[in-house]
Amino acid sequence: ESFEHRGCTVLPCEPSTQEVVGSPQSVAWLVKHLDIDVVVTLHAFHRISYMADVVREMGIPWIAYQPFEFQIDEADIAQWLDALQVAHITAPSQTVLEWLRPYLTRYTNCMHFIPHAINLKMWTPFTVSERKKLRSSAGLQNHFVVGRCDRNLRHKNYGALLEAFAKFAEGKDDVVLLIHADPDDEGGNFMEWASELGIADKLIATMPELLSRGRREGFDKTELATLYNLMDVYASPTMGEGFGMTILEAMACGIPITVTDYGAMRELAFGCGILIRIKCMEHWERPKGWGAIVDVDALAEALELLYASPQLREHYARCAMRKAGQYDISEVSKQWDALLRHIAS
To answer: What does the pLDDT read at residue 14?
Structure first.
């Protein structure tokens, strides 16, 4: 049965066949049987190319959000052109649009940049006294905290983070690595890697304790904002992102950023921390594209630089908060409103 969630009607499955929404059959059923004015999809084309036939048959406008993490191969783009030609394309970064633009010269008027949004009333920096109390309660009042919070997938490259942190932490007793992620997800077991690198005593992993208490859903947003405020720097050597939501959340909380100098991360975090140079590119098959492998030594050097300079951290913190203001939900929602009104007219 359908249910209401945050002002939206949610239909978890197609009634007659009980198929999970997302299959061609269930999407077609929803479009045909509900009074829909526009379809908005949130998956990349290689997962939903069948939508082209559905919307073409029904004559309904389609807004296709495209969160490509990597620069796409031309061969894959060619497979999706039929779908692309019947859609309004939205991307969360200018970078993704630039990756697509060479293949869509006839459809530039249907390409739109609408970034992810953030509620700045929720994601906000603690005051100096609040942060001091928080860190004291966590036993981190005298520590430099390198943090990260996102899913442990292969392209997130947690191995590079641990390796760089191990280099940076050598000879230091006042540094910790705080990670909020499943320690044994698709990206590998970072608890085992920490032991192999000799930094297990410097790793604080939040999820094992939560899982032991039966909290498989992790932290809520208020708890995550608190977690960010424990950090001195947010480090993400990811191979690619279509946007970088956790990077923006950390920025809004006033945390300096160290991220891969590639794709949407460069666009989002430029001026808010240190962009880590790329060592090489790695080809991916699904989707076909190129992911960036950071220079681990460069990441370790960036951590060292931020560790040694509170003034630099404060500068980047101010820049991060200022830039995060561009992505407040009150502003981004206006772009969606304008696009929907344009399509309706």
So the answer is: 47
pLDDT reading at 15 higher than 50: no
Q: According to DSSP H, which parts of the chain are helical? A: 24-33, 45-48, 51-58, 74-84, 94-100, 128-137, 158-169, 190-197, 207-212, 221-228, 245-252, 263-269, 296-308, 310-324, 329-344
CATH topology of domain 36-117+330-344: Rossmann fold (3.40.50)
- Domain 128-327 sits in CATH at 3.40.50.2000
CA distance 137 to 247: 25
Report d(CA 129, CA 132) in Å as an integer.
Answer: 5
Q: What are residue 148's phi and psi, to 5 degrees?
A: -155, 145
pTM for this predicted structure: 0.89
Domain ranges of the chain: 36-117+330-344, 128-327
Residue 84, token pair as written in the block: 């692309």
**Contact at 8 Å (CB) between 124 and 225?**
yes
Residue 315's contacts (CB-CB under 8 Å, 6 or more residues apart) are none
| Cα 285 to Cα 266: distance, rounded to the nearest angstrom | 23
For the chain, the residue count is 345
Q: Please give the structure tokens belonging to residue 252.
A: 């809004």
The sign of the dihedral angle between the CA atoms of 99, 256, 333, 10 is positive
